[in-house]
UniProtKB/TrEMBL annotation:
It comes from the Bacteria. Keywords: Coiled coil, Lipoprotein, Signal. Residues 37-64, 101-144 form a coiled coil. This is Lipoprotein. Residues 1-20 form the signal peptide. Gene3D superfamilies: YkyA-like. The keyword Coiled coil applies. It comes from Virgibacillus oceani.
Length: 231
């Protein structure tokens, strides 16, 4: 009888220990996915300086063009072609940036099913809150990326138009207005993306604290590039 009781107690202890190990493992898995998602955004971060430099380069070319008269049309065509080349380089950088964010999102989504396995209600609730904010961040980036690519498309069209000597000034003015409106959407989308990034970083720290995950923070995830000013 005593032996059977001891076996029952041992079985209960095993269940408790197994549950504890499972909980710790789930937290570790979530941590691994979260930090890998950050690492996968390295390529995104690396594009920022290059994109800003290319923005400045194109802006300088545009400034040179508008200072020229029609008697220097050959120079206008030359600078317009250079501007298009600069925009194409920026388009390539934006593509690499998006690939990085997409890879990060795919990795991050791996925690969705793991969150349900967290035993503590407050930890699980915080993890769900963190998950929702990060998914909103990815959605904000998608809108930012679409707005930015649309602006690049409009800019290329502008420099193609500038190579047409018979292009009407009114049509050019309308197109430049469209570019400015497009870049305002970029700035607005960029603000939302940056705000979501800040919110997520704060929630991730709160989650780590509640989950008892000891992490040393050297720096937050950098914000996205600042939006481009319109012509």
């Amino acid at each position: 009888m005593i032996r059977k009781k001891a076996i029952v107690i041992l079985a209960i202890l095993c269940i408790i220990l197994l549950s504890a190990c499972t909980g710790a493992s789930t937290k570790d898995e979530i941590y691994d996915h979260l930090e890998k998602a950050v690492t996968l955004e390295d390529a995104f971060e690396k594009q920022q300086d290059s994109i800003v430099e290319l923005e400045k380069e194109e802006q300088q070319l545009y400034s040179q063009i508008i200072d020229l008269g029609m008697d220097e049309f050959d120079k206008i065509k030359q600078l317009s072609k250079q501007a298009i080349e600069s925009i194409e380089k920026r388009t390539d950088k934006i593509k690499l940036e998006k690939e990085s964010i997409d890879a990060s999102k795919e990795e991050f989504q791996e925690i969705k099913e793991l969150i349900a396995d967290l035993e503590e209600d407050k930890v699980r609730k915080k993890a769900n809150e963190m998950y929702d904010v990060m998914m909103n961040r990815y959605e904000a980036y998608e809108k930012l990326n679409n707005a930015y690519n649309n602006s690049l498309k409009l800019e290329k069209e502008l420099y193609t138009m500038l190579q047409d000597k018979d292009m009407k000034q009114e049509k050019l003015t309308d197109h430049i207005s469209n570019i400015n409106e497009s870049y305002q959407k970029v700035l607005d989308a960029n603000d939302k993306f940056n705000a979501s990034t800040t919110d997520y970083n704060a929630l991730k720290k709160e989650f780590y604290d509640l989950a008892g995950i000891d992490v040393k923070y050297e720096a937050d995830v950098p914000d996205s590039k600042g939006g481009k000013q319109g012509e």
